[in-house]
Amino acid sequence: MTLGNFSRVTEFILLGLSDTRELQIFFFAFFFLAYAMVLLGNLLIIVTVKADPKLSSPMYFLLCNLSFIDICCTSVTSPRMLVDLISQRKTIAFEDCIAQLFFLHFVGATEMFLLTVMAYDRYTAICKPLHYTAIMSRQVCWVLVFACWAGGFLHSIVQTLLTIQLPFCGPNAIDNYFCDVPPVIRLACMDVHVTEWLMVSNSGLISLACFLVLVTSYTFILVTVRVRFTEGHWKALSTCASHLMVVTLFFIPCIFIYLRPFTSFSSDKHVCVIYTVFCPVMNPLIYTLRNNEVKASMWKLWHPPLNLSPLQHR
Length: 314
Fold this sequence. Notes:
- The protein has about 325 residues and is mainly α.
- Helices cover about 75% and strands about 5% of the residues.
- The protein has a 3-stranded mixed sheet with strand order 4-3-5.
- It is globular and about 65 Å long.
- InterPro entries: GPCR_Rhodpsn, GPCR_Rhodpsn_7TM, Olfact_rcpt, Olfactory_Receptors.
- Belongs to the G-protein coupled receptor 1 family.
């Protein structure tokens, strides 16, 4: 198919993280291990929460959804990256690139909204404990989670439409290991200043707005805990500290990538590793190693008590 006097691009070349063979082998081993940890760690959290009735509170319901989203998020980019690291031809079809872009922003925006909901859950539990059960009922949790997925879908549709309406006639080399809006639209055969501003008003402002809401929530939590020095509040604060760690690792790179139009740096693809690989790896570790209830439930899941018969008791 032609576009004026130019041929339309049918595939893109993913330059990846490095063109050195030794580094590619190292990256393959590292990211394969990371991807396996994401799958096993988050699946373990989901199974544990579903198996233990004691983990039926809104916090663990939202944690279970976060684990599922982390699996989806890293599965959008990691399998393709692993294949490219051991392949000579690192190309991706135009349609596959758009599909990857769509699902990346779908699950990525959904995770942003869910992390914001989780911050609201912790704010309600600490600052309004007497009304917590009424405010964060199971029905409300389901509505909030559905709203997160719906918001992520709408965001992704906008990003995808902004991309596919552009003409691509070459070059076709993407300086990254996956397809994303910023590096893809800069390959368009037209001025993309307006598109980049629309991208900033969508992805960039969403990232910044969610992050500011999170910071505000934790500010209120810190003020409340400073006044109430009970053991329960300090335990809740410990949970919030781990949550804040995840939030910072996830949002700061996203704000760095999506809130600055018209410029790109060679380090962008390395920054992307933080929220596409590193954060999904860290979430299971942070939410399990710092949570005694989850660790106890995992222990019971893998070491069930022995049911001795009456004859064995004698």
